[in-house]
Amino acid sequence: MNHTWHSKAACQGLAPEIFYPPTDDDADAAAAKAVCAGCQVRESCLEFALAIREKDGVWGGATERERRRMIRQRRRTA
Ligand code: SF4
């Protein structure tokens, strides 16, 4: 798997707690999503998290609950 996107991650150097909010609720995840929204490798990051079935945290602007939904939708349309 290609990991070169890591070096362009907008979250580099930021406090990891931002990306591991206590809940998946919008209010808790908003700070992380705001950073992801401006990240130039958001798609690669999201695809990576989906591929490894990452359970925790916000990746590619999506919470765990949102990623689970994406996986289900993809299965349905596959
Ligand atoms: S999309 Fe978000 S979590 Fe992924 S690399 Fe960019 S800032 Fe980090």
In terms of topology, how is this protein built?
Elements: H1 26-37, H2 42-51, H3 64-77
Protein traits:
78 residues, mainly alpha, 3 helices, 0% strand, binds iron/sulfur cluster, Whib, 4FE4S_WBL, iron, protein-disulfide reductase [NAD(P)H] activity
Using the alpha-carbon principal axes, give the shape: globular
Mean pLDDT score:
95
Q: Which parts are unreliable, with pLDDT below 50 for 5 consecutive residues or more?
A: none
- Percent helix range: 40-55%
Give a quick account of the main beta sheet: strands, pairing sense, barrel closure: none
Please state roughly what percent of the residues sit in beta strands, choosing from under 5%, 5-15%, 15-25%, 25-35%, 35-45% or over 45%: under 5%
Quaternary state of the chains? single chain
DSSP strand count: 0
Total count of domains: 1
Indicate the structural class: mainly alpha
The termini sit apart by 22 Å
- Ligand names: iron/sulfur cluster
Radius of gyration: 12 Å
Helix-strand sequence? HHH
Determine the number of helices (DSSP H or I, runs of at least 4 residues).
Answer: 3
Pfam family, one: Whib
InterPro entries: 4FE4S_WBL, Whib
Keywords: 4Fe-4S, Disulfide bond, DNA-binding, Iron, Iron-sulfur, Metal-binding, Transcription, Transcription regulation
Cofactor: [4Fe-4S] cluster
